[in-house]
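Predict structure. Chain length: 180.
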Amino acid sequence: MQGFNYMYGDENGGGMNGYVMKKRVMVVVDQSSCSKHAMMWALTHLTNKGDLLTLLHIIPPQTGLEKGVSDSSSTYLANSLGTLCKASKPEVEVEALVIQGPKLATVMSQVKKLEVSVLVLGQKKPSTFFSCLCMSSSEYFVDQCINSAECLTLGVRKQSRGLGGYLISSRWQKDFWLLA
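Prediction complete.
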């Protein structure tokens, strides 16, 4: 079964009494608050003991002087978010990846390479100006991932302060309100 890693053993880690399913959840992260909300939602709502949470930070191709500064800040961002996840839920394995390349192609290749079970993306509230004319590049990216990835892909947006909960988008449902 693609997307799931199987491990043999019982709940104490020994013997051959049964299967323990271990899933890999990947969250695309950046410096925005929406990606941090999506990361925390994935950590609290999708991961269980022994699962692997992969934080993927993508940096665009760069040249010359920008490269050193961007690489160190990207590595710092990914590592600090990984530390936050590990402190919040220590029973989940956390890894942080920083990869340079085109955003959509990099996400698709990592989903396939790592056999991701669930891909989670942060969504921004669409601006009323853009929603009348066209999708923003961020909305387009999330939509492309939802429709193209070879795994369950969820767009997560934190609801406004007054309402609470999250709006979840998938291939089958757009802006499903989850009060949790």
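Summary: The longest helix spans residues 66-88.
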